[in-house]
């Protein structure tokens, strides 16, 4: 009898091997392994896990279907609540969501809900199961801005209800952060992301890439000139923050977005046309998923990488699995330190970074203990590249060109949580554009809610 | 698809293309730029809009093949299509915004172009001419062979002053020399727009600061997305960090930190750019010649 307090182990590429390639780190469960892991679920009457999932996937039900090897049914149960299970199973911060509250986690390891979800979604894709397009169209045109998880979900759901949906995407490829941000080794682009995008297309959704709303066309153009009766804004939060410290314009200082975009969207790692840094010693500033992704990308491009983060390990906002993987791969964590200056040589190239040590003080508004500098503790770290991964905020392009669309101080679009309604009639919004940088599952959930909201809007209009 | 309907060689190593791009021509104005991608997984190459025809939905670009990606674009022919062609990006020139026209008409304006910069200058000069504003233009070129658009420019400009670095045609000297000469003759301007290589814009700004002429420059730093997402294009303007792709590309030239900007242009030159640079500098690229789009 297997030890039921422990998870069925999952196959991963060896750290020393994967540190030199961009292939997916986690190889996923086999059928046997998935069924065995599924059996660990206690099928709770009052499943706490469901409450931990932002879109309330009926977790014990799908897991039960896995124990019965009815993977199709499992997929259908998940699909009732989520349209991107292959993505969410891979990138959700499960330890703070579904798995964080799983009853199994009290005396042992939580059920590997994310890994099971991923298994089911991968199985469905490999077995050619796609969502069905609607039998009838209702003739109403809706425009969706942005093809990230939020826009894709909203578009997919509306298409299933019979709407005529067009997605407008500023970049050359659809997928939002899933294509330009999260690296191949965590989320395979062709296998997973492109397949999800194709599913949405398969529902009859048109995707127009290379259209920047607010520049090429405005929201008013879409509604007045192009006949769209409603609009969903899922434009994300792509604007990078810098620290504003001396030396930040030195050569060799990049935003994580630049490095990740060149690597993921333009496939610099496959040696395509776009140039990319080949630093020897890289410092990444920040502790979130973006920092981990930038760090592990730089590592794979051949650098020694240090993550500089101002709080302690406990406060790292990145997914636990990514921190664990990053450590295994040999990334150095320089915690409780904060950069104060970037040092450049006489030609303007980065040669180091000056940091100050920090200690944790009282908890701040976010509930995390506030880092305070320790006076006189400054020292220098040698490096030739600095990558800033300090978080992002929504791009003002859309808000500034749309009359009557209200935003808050941070530039986030104001929208009702339950249905995405904004201050402008027939315009809905959700995802990172509303919340600021958050998660894939929340963005997806907002897209779903807004699809319902838009449908209700049309029904009430009649 | 973004089909190329016309391709012309304007001078040795300077090409013009008309590209079908309805989403760009829907609302573009002079001063804005587009991003072109030649083929899948290609580099995003920013190029200034050099003319446009809203009715025919055509955008004109003029460029100099200087590296891998611009070479790839140069190989495309009439009938071929760009994989991607997105825009208009950036802000229009403040002179060419219809609402600003009354203000514009009060100004005494001179444009100074260098090399490939002549094409975007022409776009603005033509727009102003069509809206009843005649401006003076100083058109600089390294030599006579590299000069293009002279006739079109003469038609659209109030006065056209051509100059060549080597004296092979018209005035012998650079744009700055020509402006100084006009000033000495008693010409007066209160607004200058300079578009060309960074080094040329830097020297124009030095001169116009002395002469007290407000000067606008079009900055062309390294860009990736062109929508404010990557920060690659950041510049120091008036002591503040600005993103050229969304806050520009045109800025008050007297506030731009050109040395920082030129230093940042070197970013990728140590890596993949090296090879091409050697090739580039071996022939035309000396910096400041007013010909090469390379350090523009
Ligand atoms: C590197 C990185 C790693 C991450 N890792 C995780 C993780 O492990 N787990 C997790 O849950 N979350 C993660 N996140 C966060 C997550 O990716 C986002 O919260 C999520 O993608 C938000 O989805 P969205 O649809 O709102 O926006 P996005 O995914 O940002 O998509 C917005 C899309 O809109 C387009 N757009 C923007 N403006 C315009 C315009 N004017 N016109 C047309 N199109 C426009 C953009 O090009 C983009 O394609 C990560 C984020 C990053 C950057
Ligand atoms: C807003 C804007 C408008 C522009 N308009 C024009 C135009 O109308 N006509 C024209 O000929 N050129 C223009 N440029 C410059 C043009 O984009 C570059 O020549 C081109 O990107 C070089 O790409 P490449 O791959 O061929 O060369 P690469 O092989 O990338 O590089 C050659 C060298 O050029 C440098 N470089 C890389 N990216 C850029 C960049 N974006 N700008 C300048 N140098 C770069 C690199 O350091 C490299 O070493 C413009 C640039 C910007 C930002
Ligand atoms: S969507 Fe995310 S939170 Fe919900 S069950 Fe799946 S992995 Fe857990
Ligand atoms: S809480 Fe854990 S054990 Fe209970 S149903 Fe959910 S996954 Fe199964
Ligand atoms: S080009 Fe990326 S922010 Fe300007």
Automatic annotation (TrEMBL), chain A:
Gene Ontology molecular function: glutamate synthase (NADPH) activity; iron-sulfur cluster binding
EC number(s) on file: 1.4.1.13
Keywords: Oxidoreductase
Superkingdom classification of source: Bacteria
Residues of the Dihydroprymidine dehydrogenase domain: 18-128
EC primary class: oxidoreductase
Chain ranges of the FAD/NAD(P)-binding domain: 141-447
SUPFAM superfamilies reported in the protein's UniProt record: alpha-helical ferredoxin (SSF46548), Nucleotide-binding domain (SSF51971)
UniProt keyword Oxidoreductase, yes or no: yes
InterPro entries in the record: DPD_II (IPR028261), FAD/NAD-bd_sf (IPR036188), FAD/NAD-binding_dom (IPR023753), Helical_ferredxn (IPR009051), SudA-like (IPR006004)
Protein name: NADPH-dependent glutamate synthase
Organism lineage string: Bacteria, Bacillati, Bacillota, Clostridia, Lachnospirales
UniProt gene name: gltA
TrEMBL record, chain B:
InterPro entries reported for this sequence: Cyt_c3_hydrogenase_gsu, Dihydroorotate_DH_Fe-S-bd, FAD-bd_FR_type, FNR_nucleotide-bd, PyrK_electron_transfer, Riboflavin_synthase-like_b-brl
Keyword Iron-sulfur: yes
Gene Ontology BP annotations: pyrimidine nucleotide biosynthetic process
Record text on cofactor binding: Binds 1 [2Fe-2S] cluster per subunit.
FAD-binding FR-type domain mapped to chain residues: 1-95
Sorted UniProt keywords: 2Fe-2S, FAD, Flavoprotein, Iron, Iron-sulfur, Metal-binding
Xref: CDD domains: DHOD_e_trans_like1
One GO MF term attached to the UniProt entry: oxidoreductase activity
Positions annotated to bind FAD: 62-64
Protein name: Sulfide/dihydroorotate dehydrogenase-like FAD/NAD-binding protein
Lineage of producing organism: Bacteria, Bacillati, Bacillota, Clostridia, Lachnospirales
Xref: Pfam families: DHODB_Fe-S_bind (PF10418)
Cofactor(s) named in the record: [2Fe-2S] cluster; FAD
PROSITE patterns from the UniProt entry: FAD_FR
The keyword Lipid biosynthesis belongs to this UniProt entry's keyword annotation: no
Residues holding [2Fe-2S] cluster: 230, 233, 245
């Amino acid at each position: 009898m297997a030890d039921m307090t422990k998870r069925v182990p999952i196959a991963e590429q060896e750290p020393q091997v994967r540190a030199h390639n961009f292939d997916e780190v986690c190889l996923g469960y086999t059928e046997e392994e998935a069924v065995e892991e599924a059996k660990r679920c206690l099928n709770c009457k009052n499943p706490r896990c469901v409450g931990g999932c932002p879109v309330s996937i009926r977790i014990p039900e799908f897991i039960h279907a896995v124990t019965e090897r009815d993977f199709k049914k499992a997929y259908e149960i998940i699909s009732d609540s989520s349209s991107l299970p292959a993505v969410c199973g891979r990138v959700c911060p499960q330890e703070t969501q579904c798995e964080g509250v799983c009853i199994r986690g009290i005396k042992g390891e939580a059920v590997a809900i994310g890994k099971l979800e991923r298994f089911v979604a991968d199985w469905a894709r490999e077995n050619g199961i796609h969502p069905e397009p609607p039998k009838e169209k209702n003739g109403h045109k809706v425009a969706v801005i942005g093809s990230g998880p939020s826009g894709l979900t909203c578009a997919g759901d509306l298409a299933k209800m019979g709407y005529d949906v067009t997605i407008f995407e500023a970049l050359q490829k659809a997928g939002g952060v899933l294509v330009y941000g999260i690296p191949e080794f965590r989320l395979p682009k062709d296998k997973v992301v492109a397949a999800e995008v194709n599913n949405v297309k398969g529902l009859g959704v048109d995707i127009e890439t290379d259209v920047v709303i607010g520049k090429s066309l405005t929201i008013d153009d879409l509604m007045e000139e192009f006949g769209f009766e409603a609009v969903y804004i899922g434009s994300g939060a792509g604007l990078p923050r810098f620290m504003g410290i001396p030396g930040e314009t030195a050569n060799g200082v990049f935003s994580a977005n630049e490095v990740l975009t060149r690597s993921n969207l333009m496939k610099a790692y496959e040696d395509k046309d776009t140039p990319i840094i080949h630093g020897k010693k890289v410092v990444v500033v920040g502790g979130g998923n973006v920092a981990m992704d930038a760090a592990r990308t730089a590592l794979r491009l051949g650098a020694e990488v240090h993550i500089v983060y101002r709080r302690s390990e406990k406060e790292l906002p990145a997914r636990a699995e990514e921190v664990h993987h990053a450590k295994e791969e040999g990334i150095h964590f320089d915690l409780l330190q904060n950069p104060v200056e970037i040092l450049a040589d006489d030609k303007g190239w980065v040669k180091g970074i000056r940091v100050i040590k920090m200690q944790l003080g009282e908890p701040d508004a976010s509930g995390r203990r506030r880092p305070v500098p320790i006076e006189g503790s400054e020292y220098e770290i040698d490096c030739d590249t600095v990558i800033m991964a300090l978080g992002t905020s929504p791009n003002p392009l859309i808000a500034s060109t749309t009359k009557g669309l209200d935003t808050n101080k941070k530039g986030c679009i104001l929208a009702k949580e339950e249905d995405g309604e904004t201050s402008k009639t027939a315009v809905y919004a959700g995802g990172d554009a509303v919340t600021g940088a958050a998660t894939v599952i929340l963005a997806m959930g907002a897209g779903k809610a807004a699809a319902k909201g838009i449908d209700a809007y049309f029904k009430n209009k009649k | 698809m973004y089909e190329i309907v016309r391709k012309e060689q304007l001078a040795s190593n300077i090409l013009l293309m008309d590209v079908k791009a309805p989403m760009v021509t829907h609302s573009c104005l002079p001063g804005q730029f587009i991003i072109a991608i030649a083929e899948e997984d290609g580099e995003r190459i920013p190029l200034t809009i050099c003319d446009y025809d809203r009715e025919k939905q055509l955008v004109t670009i003029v460029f100099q093949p200087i590296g891998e990606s611009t070479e790839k674009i140069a190989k495309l022919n009439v009938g071929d299509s760009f994989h991607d062609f997105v825009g208009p990006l950036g802000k229009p020139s403040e002179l060419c915004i219809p609402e600003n026209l009354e203000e514009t008409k009060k100004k005494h304006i001179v444009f100074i172009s260098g090399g490939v910069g002549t094409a975007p200058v022409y776009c603005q000069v033509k727009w102003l001419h069509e809206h009843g504003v005649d401006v003076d233009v100083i058109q600089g070129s390294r030599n006579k062979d590299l000069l293009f658009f002279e006739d079109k420019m003469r038609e659209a400009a109030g006065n056209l002053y051509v100059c060549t670095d080597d004296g092979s045609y018209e005035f012998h000297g650079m744009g700055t020399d020509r402006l100084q000469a006009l000033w000495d003759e008693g010409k007066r301007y209160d607004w200058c727009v300079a578009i060309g290589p960074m080094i040329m814009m830097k020297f124009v700004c030095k001169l116009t600061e002395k002469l007290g002429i407000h000067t606008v420059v079009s900055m062309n730093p390294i860009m990736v997305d062109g929508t404010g997402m990557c920060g690659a294009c950041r510049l120091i303007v008036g002591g503040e960090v600005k993103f050229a792709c969304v806050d520009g590309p045109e800025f008050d030239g007297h506030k731009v930190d050109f040395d920082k900007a030129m230093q940042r242009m070197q970013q990728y030159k140590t890596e993949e750019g090296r090879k091409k640079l050697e090739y580039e500098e071996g022939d035309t690229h000396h910096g400041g010649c007013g010909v090469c789009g390379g350090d523009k």
